């Protein structure tokens, strides 16, 4: 049985849904800033930087770039991806060991866990492999956990690093690492980049790129619709995806083959676009006096 989303894809002559919220490297749009972020990630890996730092607003595309990088790594690299970084330093070590497919017994002490971790790094090094630990949403790490991470970089073999760290998080992560009491960790950050929100022309290129990847044979969004999407989403890719997806659903229900500015206005007026908890106001030229759309919630 066909779902409404299946019908919406068919309605616009597409092969798949172009604005899914799930990160998909196949849809990665290489804006200038995304190219720089990827280059800095790659630079950090190739030069064996002790710590590489990538930050950006929620939904800026950090995770998509990260997955793109992971797809390029060879068999000489072992990657541990840690997305749950809460707890004390012992719990952090457990998450790290599990990410590397290593046992982390509940009854094991911190010393035992660290010994297991160090032994694993040495064993991988002896086999000609290096280990990369990636901490996603690293802004949630406590000061104690960040200090523990710094200690990981002290496990060296001659001039070679046995482990490299990649910290990925929201803008406050940069502020956290720049604190005076974190200077030893900051000094180990050899590569870093901050992903800003997209400007108007970049949003236009982003929307058209995703539509083309999804099989669009002609422009679907009008210039006015794209302008309003940019204003309402503030250029955050995840919010652009959310608003564009809703606008296409609305156009489908109206049996329209194109998305106009008026259709995007309808989405905003109905309050179905949550905008990551931000307040959305339709620009004066596109609404009657006193008509305001306010959306609250989490994206």
From TrEMBL:
InterPro entries: AAA+_ATPase, AAA_22, ExeA_AAA_ATPase_DNA-bind, P-loop_NTPase. Transmembrane segments: none annotated. It comes from the Bacteria. Residues 48-190 form the AAA+ ATPase domain. Pfam families: AAA_22. This is ExeA family protein. It comes from Rubellimicrobium aerolatum.
């Amino acid at each position: 049985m066909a779902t409404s989303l299946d019908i919406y894809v068919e309605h616009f002559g597409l092969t798949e849904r172009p604005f899914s919220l799930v990160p998909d490297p196949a849809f990665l749009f290489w804006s200038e800033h995304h190219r720089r972020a990827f280059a800095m990630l790659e630079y950090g890996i190739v030069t064996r930087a002790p710590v590489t730092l990538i930050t950006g607003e929620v939904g800026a595309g950090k995770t998509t770039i990260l997955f793109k990088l992971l797809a390029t790594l060879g068999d000489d690299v072992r990657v541990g991806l840690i997305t749950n970084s809460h707890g004390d330093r012992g719990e952090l070590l457990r998450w790290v060991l599990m990410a590397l497919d290593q046992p982390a017994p509940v009854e094991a002490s911190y010393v035992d866990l660290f010994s297991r971790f160090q032994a694993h790094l040495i064993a991988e090094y002896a086999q000609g492999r290096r280990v990369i630990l990636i901490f996603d949403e690293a802004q949630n790490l406590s000061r104690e956990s960040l200090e523990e991470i710094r200690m990981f970089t002290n496990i060296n073999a001659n001039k070679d690093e046995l482990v490299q760290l990649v910290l990925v998080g929201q803008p406050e992560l940069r502020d956290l690492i720049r604190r005076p009491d974190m200077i030893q960790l900051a000094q180990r950050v050899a590569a870093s980049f901050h992903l800003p929100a997209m400007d108007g022309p970049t949003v236009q290129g982003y929307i058209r790129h995703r539509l083309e990847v999804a099989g669009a044979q002609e422009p679907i969004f009008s210039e006015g619709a794209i302008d309003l999407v940019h204003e309402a989403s503030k250029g955050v890719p995840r919010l652009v995806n959310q608003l564009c997806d809703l606008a296409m659903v609305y156009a489908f229900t109206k049996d329209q083959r194109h998305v106009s500015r008026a259709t995007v206005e309808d989405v905003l007026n109905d309050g179905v676009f949550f905008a990551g908890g931000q307040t959305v106001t339709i620009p004066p030229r596109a609404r009657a006096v006193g008509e305001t759309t306010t959306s609250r919630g989490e994206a």
